[in-house]
Amino acid sequence: MEIQQTLEILAFTDPVCTWCWGAEPVLRKLQVGYGDQVRIRPVMGGLVEDIRAFYDSANAIGGDPERSNAQIASHWLEASQRHGMPVRTEGFRLFTAEVVSTYPQNIAVKAAELTAPALGGSYLRRLREASAAEARETGRREVLIELAGDVGLDLATFIGHLTDGSAEHAFRADLELTRQFGVRGFPTFGLRFGERALVLRGYQNFQAMQAVIETLSEGALQWRAPMPDAAGLLGFLRTFGRAAPVELTTVFDLSPADLERLLAGLEAAGDIRRVAAGQGCFWEPMAAGPGCDSVTGLCAT
């Protein structure tokens, strides 16, 4: 029996990096089309250790925490106009006099992975949503804990990893891996298939990522395009929970007009709902009916 080879992607990232947020449609398309032939492993790179000592000359970001918030919000909005993922600038306040680093968010992701490896990706995604599309102050511990509850993590265990140093230790290991790969910007992707490997720096569109994957694997991986119909969309949303329109057009190769038609039908049938998010929206599946979620322990009416 032939053993299936797997291509590994090390996604060097930070939960509040806007171009990492913009990479979500491409990464989700890779997950759907290649399935378990591709394994995406997020590596927390720690974008800002201390905003007071940080300076991004290209976007004039850094220095005073409160002034930096306005600079970052403007940069995120400009980036959103290019990558299409929603952002909220109203009430945006990532940094304060007490919160000057993005390390708490990075450490929280490691705490989530230690608590429940299968939910680590869900927590990172929820953290990105809260930071970018909801303008939540995700550097605050109480917000990080609330988001852990949103994805069904055991809160006592999660808080334990935040408190006992184990999550920070895991984050420091990620920082060392980031240094070993010479990563100085996010996102950066390290791809490996067998003995072949390469590093891609910066945001990549799907066509570039697929071309590199096909080259590294020499055609060994099989691409399975999802069905671009209502059933396919609903199945995707039930798997991933929610998605921005650009994620759906990217994953299913749909035009905005065709996507709108399919979403309208699903919404009219009561299968999905639109959730406002910043200057855009998400689409998410409706609950099947009254009952309790065995993952989150939340009962709906």
Automatic annotation (TrEMBL):
<dbReference type="Pfam" id="PF13743">
    <property type="entry name" value="Thioredoxin_5"/>
</dbReference>
<protein>
    <submittedName>
        <fullName>Thioredoxin</fullName>
    </submittedName>
</protein>
<dbReference type="InterPro" id="IPR036249">
    <property type="entry name" value="Thioredoxin-like_sf"/>
</dbReference>
